[in-house]
Design goal:
CATH architecture: Alpha-Beta Complex
Strand order of the largest sheet: 4-1-6-5
CATH superfamily: Nucleoside Triphosphate Pyrophosphohydrolase
Number of strands: 7
Helix content: 10-25%
Number of helices: 3
Shape: globular
Radius of gyration: 14 Å
Order of helices and strands: EEEEHEEEHH
Oligomer: single chain
Distance between the termini: 33 Å
Structural class: alpha+beta
Largest sheet: 4 strands, mixed
CATH class: Alpha Beta
Length: 141
C-alpha cells in the first residue's frame, strides 16, 4: 500500500500548479505531492512535497477528499511487480504563502508550472489531475 498527499493550488488567474512526474514509463504532469514518510502526518507530507517539487511554501485550506485505487500488477510502473498496489491519495486545497517557483533536483519530478484549464486538457497527465480538480470543483469542460 502507498499513501500519498497532494495539493490543488490555483492562482488569481485560475491557473493550476502542476509538477511533471518522471518516474513513470513516460513523463506526465501531476498534482504536486507525494508519498508519506514513515510516521509522517498527511498534511505535513503535502506541505513538504509541494515545497520540494515547486519551491512554494503553502498553507492547507481544506481536505478535499481521499481517492483509493488498486493498480493491477501488470499495470504498475515497475512491470515486474508480482502483486497489485493499493494507493490512497489524500487531496487538499492549498494556497501559497511564500517561496518562488523552482524545479526539483534529483527527485521524482523535474519541472513545475502554472497551467490554465485549456492547457491542462492538452497535457500528458496522470488521472489524479482530473480526479483532484473534480474534488476541488474545478471543471475543465
Amino acid at each position: 500500500m502507498r499513501v500519498a498527499a497532494y495539493a490543488v493550488i490555483t492562482d488569481d488567474d485560475g491557473r493550476v500548479l502542476l509538477a511533471r512526474w518522471t518516474e513513470g514509463r513516460r513523463a506526465s504532469w501531476t498534482m504536486p505531492g507525494g508519498g508519506l514518510e514513515a510516521g509522517e502526518d498527511p498534511a505535513d507530507a503535502a506541505r513538504r512535497e509541494v515545497k520540494e517539487e515547486t519551491g512554494y511554501k503553502v498553507v492547507l485550506d481544506e481536505l478535499l477528499g481521499i481517492h483509493s485505487r488498486v493498480i493491477p500488477a501488470g499495470q504498475r510502473v515497475a512491470r515486474d511487480s508480482p502483486s497489485p498496489l493499493h494507493t490512497l491519495r489524500i487531496v487538499y486545497r492549498a494556497h501559497i504563502v511564500g517561496g518562488r517557483l523552482r524545479f526539483e533536483k534529483n527527485g521524482s519530478t523535474d519541472m513545475a508550472g502554472w497551467f490554465d484549464l485549456e492547457a491542462i486538457g492538452r497535457l500528458q497527465r496522470v488521472k489524479l489531475v482530473d480526479i483532484a480538480l473534480g474534488m476541488a470543483g474545478i471543471d475543465r469542460a
